[in-house]
Design goal:
The chain is α+β, with helices and mostly antiparallel strands and about 200 residues long. About 30% of the residues lie in helices and about 25% in strands. The longest helix is centred in the first third of the chain and has 18 residues, at about 5-25. The two termini are about 40 Å apart.
């Protein structure tokens, strides 16, 4: 990396220092971990030494990150708008850093199904937080009451279903790629009771 890339150069130097400080390490500690001299590390952080690719790779490893993350530039698309699925009462946001992840917001009014055959099982993991109201999560043969601001995380290979208790509830869920696919396949059957991504 040369000084011609002024903004990126400055960003990478600030990032190295910020990551070092976040780990609670002194210059001496990071220098030892990266196997560079303390003065070299100080000059890298302060812009008095040219950034070399081999040193960046070594520093990235020592800082427990990747070279890509260390040199990643800011993007203009920080803010995103939801995709509206009015038919299922959903708002969906893809997670740009991991295209396999989806964030879903859903308002539920129906209780969870009485019939256990309506519970779904599929590969993946789900995480959800109740934004308002109270949700009931059926997970295997267990019954969980999740109140406002409480969260649940579970492997979706366990048969599961979710619904509202005592009135409407609103949830925000995060689904990995496998969980999202599992819900999309069963979306129509579970429409009234499922937060399908």
């Amino acid at each position: 990396m040369t000084q011609d890339n002024g903004e990126l150069d400055s960003l990478v130097r600030k990032r190295i220092r910020a990551l070092r400080v976040a780990h609670g390490w002194s210059l001496e500690e990071l220098a030892a971990r990266a196997k560079v001299s303390q003065s070299t590390l100080s000059r890298i952080e302060n812009g008095r030494r040219r950034l070399a690719l081999d040193q960046l790779v070594t520093l990235a490893r020592a800082l427990d990150t990747t070279l890509d993350q260390l040199v990643e530039t800011a993007t203009d698309d920080v803010v995103s708008n939801p995709m509206i699925d009015a038919a299922h009462g959903l708002m969906r946001w893809p997670v740009k850093a991991d295209p396999g992840m989806t964030v879903v917001r859903q308002r539920m009014t129906n209780p969870p199904p009485d019939n256990t055959s309506r519970m779904r099982a599929h590969p993946g993991r789900e995480w959800l937080v109740v934004l308002s109201g109270t949700a009931i999560l059926l997970l295997g043969n267990r019954h969980f009451r999740i109140e406002t601001n409480q969260a649940a995380e579970f492997p979706t290979m366990l048969p599961h279903a979710i619904g509202a208790e005592g009135g409407p509830c609103e949830i925000l869920g995060i689904f990995d790629r496998d969980a999202r696919r599992g819900h999309q396949r069963g979306e129509d059957a579970d429409k009234p009771n499922r937060p399908s991504p």
